ABC transporter ATP-binding protein
Amino acid sequence: MQTVLKADSIKVQYGGLIAVNDVSLSLEKGQVLGLIGPNGAGKSTLFNAITGFAPVRSGSVTFFDQDVTNAPPYVRTRNGMGRTFQTERPYEDLTVLENVLVAAFLKNPKRKDAEKVAMSALEKVGLEDRANQLSSDLNLARLRRLELAKALALEPKVLFLDEIMAGLNPPALKEMIEFLRTLTATGMSIVMVEHIMEAIIQLADHVIVLASGNKIAEGSASDVINDERVIEAYLGTD
């Protein structure tokens, strides 16, 4: 099986604070990797370091055998990384379609081609009927789908999802899990930072647990949720 992403001994430090300490991971083609841990564990910082939004103090990031450790985000995006953000960032004065077009133009400079890619992304996430609606009128569940559509319009080889399930009600959560299942069925590789354990259990092939910037456990979802170190990190000790 092909290794599409490898992070070796990643360290991220801000002044005297070590946010991520010597963490390594790898992702195989078609695999879903879950990153979990309590608040402040370093999950999003590691995620940002891999995608180019946080500086790496030491260690390396390899994407499809290319060293991208010091590459800016747009280079990583052109190479095949597509990501969502914890906080939705739509252009509120643009329509849903126009928001996705912004992403589609990165690899498709001709408007006709970009519109085709953007509409395809909207169809995949079930927002094609909202294409001409202002993004500011979308509810939370649809904003999350818009984030996904923007990432898919980048035509990624690996999709990075940063707490895409947060705040969704049970029906919307179920729909999002089912949608991601359809993506994984196509062979899409995914790295997901997530607090919703239901999603991790149903989707992740492999799970890494962080606490205080350190990797404390990894394995299948069932293995890590029963690991005493993980239970202690989440619940503390008596």
Residues 15 and 57 are 11 Å apart (CA to CA).
